Amino acid sequence: ENAKDGIAVWPAANPEVNEISLFVAGISGESTRVKDPKTGNDVILRKTLERDYLIPGDSTARGGQPAQLQNETWVMR
After folding, report:
1. Which of 6, 50, 65, 76 is the 20 to 30 A CA-CA neighbour of 30?
2. Could you tell me the sign of the dihedral formed by the alpha carbons of 30, 34, 39, 41, in that order?
3. What region does 64 belong to: left with phi over 0, alpha with psi -120 to 50, or beta?
4. Within a 13 Å sphere around the CA of 62, how many CA atoms are in the beta-carbon half?
5. pLDDT tens per residue across span 24-76
6. 76 conformational bin, left if phi > 0, alpha if psi -120 to 50, beta if neither
7. Are strands 42-54 and 31-35 parallel, antiparallel or unpaired?
8. What sign does the CA torsion over 32, 38, 40, 42 have?
9. 6-36, pLDDT tens digit by residue?
């Protein structure tokens, strides 16, 4: 009942790209504070959903064919 739909749109800098990784933050409230190994400063890592997509075929013949979800994993970043 709390589900939301959304869309992300951006211009294709290179139409020959056939793989994309999408990082979605804000859907989990989980976070942790760690020390940056280079600076020693505290940084906050947030649980983020990573979704990897494959866009098969030639860019000119692809048309409106949807991207295929290949992998979905949670990462802290």
Report:
1. 6
2. positive
3. alpha
4. 15
5. 999 999 999 999 999 999 999 999 999 999 988 887 777 778 889 999 999 99
6. beta
7. antiparallel
8. negative
9. 887 888 888 888 899 999 999 999 999 999 9
